[in-house]
Amino acid sequence: MKIFLVRNARAVPRDEWKGEELLRPLSERGEAEARAIAEHLAGVGITRVVAAPELRCQQTVELLARGARRAVHVDERLAAGSEVEKALEVLPSFESGPVALCSHPDTILGLLRFFELGEAEARDGRLPCRKGSIWVLQGFGRTPTSASYLEPETRRKGKLRFPVEAPAALRAAILDLGSTSFNLLISDATPEGEVRPVVQEKVMLRLGAVIATSSSIPEDVAERAIAVGRALCEVARREKVELLLPVATAALREARNGAEVADRIGSAIGTPVRILSGEEEARAIFRALQARVGLGGGRALGLDLGGGSLELALGTASRGVEWTTTLPLGVVRLHERHVKSDPMTAREARILDESVRSEMAPHLEAIAHRRPALALASGGTARALARLLAEGERRARLSGGLPLGADALAELRDVLVRSSHRQRLRMRGVRRGRADLLPTGAVVLSTVAEVLGLEGFTVSDWGLREGVILEALASGKRR
Questions:
Q1: Distance between CA atoms of 162 and 34, rounded to whole angstroms?
Q2: d(CA 368, CA 205)
Q3: How far lies 240's CA from each of 91, 117, 120, 137, 475, in Å?
Q4: Distance (Å, rounded) from C-alpha 53 to C-alpha 61?
Q5: pLDDT higher than 60, residue 281
Q6: What residues contact residue 220 under an 8 Å CB cut-off, 6+ apart?
Q7: Integer Cα distance of 91 and 23 in angstroms
Q8: Nearest Cα to 466, choosing from 275, 270, 282, 288?
């Protein structure tokens, strides 16, 4: 969401105007500034135009409103000399589309100071606000988290225009409401596809385990999920995130009351939660794998092993995704349903193996027909297994991509299946929050590699979260 705070353009000088101050109109220079404002904001999709009651403010945004096919709404709370608290009441929710508000410098600068924004634009310790200028506020919910300043320049033949700058890095946050954990990734993302992590937070909730035994999310679990979502969102606000992307995957997608819980989380954080379909999830993951690891010249199979589901996508660098499917083979789901012993029994391991083979069987022909030359994997469990092997073989840590060979994975699977939870915690590279899931994850990935005849996977440190950010950048979404 963006709010454009427009300073009124130049009016006829006071000593040349004999009428009422409220009706003092724009000067010829002010009309040129108003045209520059209308031209600059013509393509942003303005949804509402609000002006202070002074005629010069209304005239400043009249052309803009006409081009956007909107009326100019007059609001006394933006008048010269009004208290900032009154102006705050006019600010819309950042869930709506872009809004233009035209007022006076005391009001505009008061709003910036209230939100503690604009320090980067300060000149000699003062915030600029020239006539005909624009302050752009961005954020989510009801709180702007960044502000940038624009003013028109004189171009050829004396025409005024605002400078056109290349889009800067966007501070974006993806709130991933997953089946294993809720994850927050705050990154500075560029139009060129760079996603530079700034903050990463994770809270293990295991929603997938809940819906594995119940079709609904119990109220106490829902309240915990809402509280975690709100807390993670507060982290995003403190980091002055400009774009918040809350998404949910298998657990909320499949729970009978998943949509209701997602709506409640969205209300708590001030931004609607988007429940991804299996295909949307697979496509976002494939985009991240392509950007991070590369697909080569042939067809690639992208795989993401999550807590509630296993996503598969096939495609090429030139054509994109050609085929996707989602299977109920998430590690939390399978672990909760089939693994009751520590260590896992041979029978439990066999049931897991048979479950994977049964779910994969209908898709083997489609995958074989497309002949993937490369297999890429993502997801917390795949990364944990790759790190574990890297520790054992004294290889570099996961950065971009690490090989996870089928033979090495099968050996690791056997070790993990025979190990107890306490033994796994003593293994170098194993993290406490995922130690109980590693044997199940190893069985799933090893069986997939076997039934598809793969030599192994290249495991990426990018996945769904980076893919959703890349999709937002590609669509031009910057609010």
A1: 11
A2: 36
A3: 18, 10, 13, 11, 22
A4: 12
A5: yes
A6: none
A7: 25
A8: 288
Q: Could you tell me which CATH number the domain at 294-461 has?
A: 3.30.420.150
Per the omega criterion (within 30 degrees of 0), is the bond before 25 cis? no
Residue with tokens 């918040």: 244
Query: What is the pLDDT at residue 168?
Result: 65
pLDDT tier, 89 (very low <50, low <70, confident <90, very high otherwise)? confident
pLDDT reported for residue 93 = 55
* Separation in Å, CA 394 to CA 386, 387, 427: 12, 10, 13
CA 27 distance to own-chain centroid: 44
CA distance 38 to 55: 17
Q: For residue 403, give the 3-state DSSP assignment.
A: strand
Bridge partners, residue 6, by sequence: 102, 134
Quickly tell me which residue has 């080569």 as its tokens. 296
% of residues, the chain, pLDDT over 70: 93
Of 376, 368, 372, 403, the C-alpha closest to 298 is 372
Cβ proximity of 117 and 147 under 8 Å: yes
Reported as a pLDDT band with limits 50, 70 and 90, residue 433 is confident
Residue type, 207: L
CB 37 within 8 A of CB 61: yes
Q: Is the separation of the CB atoms in 454 and 348 below 8 Å?
A: no
Report whether CATH 3.40.50.1240 matches the domain 2-161: yes
**What does the domain layout of the chain look like in residue ranges?**
2-161, 170-277, 294-461
Q: Render 114-127 in DSSP notation, one character per residue.
A: HTT--GGG-BTTB-
Q: Residue 114: pLDDT band by 50, 70, 90 thresholds?
A: confident
Q: At what angle do helices 331-338 and 438-452 cross, to 10 degrees?
A: 110
Same fold, 170-277 and 294-461: yes
Q: Which amino acid is at 279?
A: E
Torsion on CA atoms 33, 35, 41, 45, rounded to nearest 10: 140
What is the residue whose two structure tokens read 């500034």? 33
CA distance 34 to 24: 15
H helix intervals, 239-277: 250-254, 258-269
Question: What is the dotted CATH code of the domain comprising 170-277?
Answer: 3.30.420.40
Cα separation values, 335 from 342, 365, 406, 444, 445, Å: 12, 28, 22, 11, 14
Token pair 């990018």 is found at 462
Task: Supply 246's token pair.
Answer: 């809350």
Q: How far apart are CA 108 and CA 52, in angstroms?
A: 12
State in Å, rounded, how far the first CA of the chain is from the last one.
4
Bridge-based pairing of strands 195-204 and 181-189 is antiparallel
- How many other C-beta atoms can be found within 10 angstroms of the C-beta atom of residue 351? 17
